[in-house]
């Protein structure tokens, strides 16, 4: 009943919002599937060989400790070694960095450490120094597909705000806001709800300086300032005169006010550990450098500390589910982040909405790399492709429920169910009434990609550009303070 009343209020106002159309690409990050993974299944006997050759180099022995002849050595050339005696390396700075870590350790590194360096290395990480989103980037996310996505998330946030009793001050946090498109559409769609927008203080958790700048422009920010103590950047969005702040992590977002957190395609990029079952049990899958200086996957020759993560995750799964799998992925970072989110919601009130591709159970082998909208090998040219893995929604649920009895977890439900419950069908019908034929085609295509399943039946263009729906592939989960009740779309 509350949803119907809210939608009745929102529908006429949303219908007056400006139509924003985005170029549609046939390729998207939403097309990820575990079958496209470039990782390898390894023999349990595989182990690191990066340092074994070093031992052999020192295994020479002298034939006779008392030589009968004198040997004369000419050392004159040692003072003037020839320049460029070795072939110049074509490795990127990130590749050199990864190899130096492996060499320093004297053995392989975890997949989690490899992932973290590739994506967020301060100097050469994939997300750090460039815009990777959109048709000219490496993948397209739902907010870039259609303005309707951000508008519907705005409906969810406003309905939750009403359930919370319309507090005068709310922290609206987005984790990994990309170009800022979702937040921009959310603010534009809700701009006529003055009491709501007046209550907001937006906090964008973003580590990339390049993307921070793009978000600043997307939100039409002005009056920029920097906190001398924390270094946090702040501004005001001209869209709704809403204050905006940037932070490197959720820990830096001020507490004390009710908090609403949005995490869209954020958890899938958190570093994972991979494990493979063999004759001697479970072994950690790791990244090493082969004799020809190429990266390769190996299995740890013995137990590693990361096996504790596997043991913990396995406690939350039925024994038969674990037994039937040959490989398992575990994401401790997702568990830790979920606990932080749940603690914040427990103490300050509010909720979190997590939307990502994944499954409600153990994840087997889903790690994949995407470059320019195409799948590539995970170890190919690190730093030039996005790495992501399926989100284990079951582990998110258990991690949140462990924190407090005052926190409830709802879902996951499909993205199609979420957006349908929030009124996307009414929204697309309203937009189609006032647009050109080209705009109508883009709207229908974007709508299908957000809520459809499989190939669009109406498509008449090239086969390779057929829109593929992500409506059932993406899932949504809500973590809420029980005082607010069950959020809309999850009732």
UniProtKB/TrEMBL annotation:
Residues 83-92 have a biased composition (Basic and acidic residues). SUPFAM superfamilies: S-adenosyl-L-methionine-dependent methyltransferases. Residues 25-52, 62-74 have a biased composition (Low complexity). Its EC number is 2.1.1.320. Coiled coil: none annotated. One of its GO terms (cellular component) is mitochondrion. Keywords: Methyltransferase, Mitochondrion, Transferase, Transit peptide. It comes from the Eukaryota. One of its GO terms (biological process) is methylation. Residues 25-92 are annotated as: Disordered. GO terms for molecular function: protein-arginine omega-N symmetric methyltransferase activity. Pfam families: Methyltransf_28. It is found in: Mitochondrion. It catalyses: L-arginyl-[protein] + 2 S-adenosyl-L-methionine = N(omega),N(omega)'-dimethyl-L-arginyl-[protein] + 2 S-adenosyl-L-homocysteine + 2 H(+). Belongs to the NDUFAF7 family. Arginine methyltransferase involved in the assembly or stability of mitochondrial NADH:ubiquinone oxidoreductase complex (complex I). Acts by mediating symmetric dimethylation of 'Arg-118' of NDUFS2 after it assembles into the complex I, stabilizing the early intermediate complex. This is Protein arginine methyltransferase NDUFAF7. The lineage of its organism: Eukaryota, Viridiplantae, Streptophyta, Embryophyta, Tracheophyta.
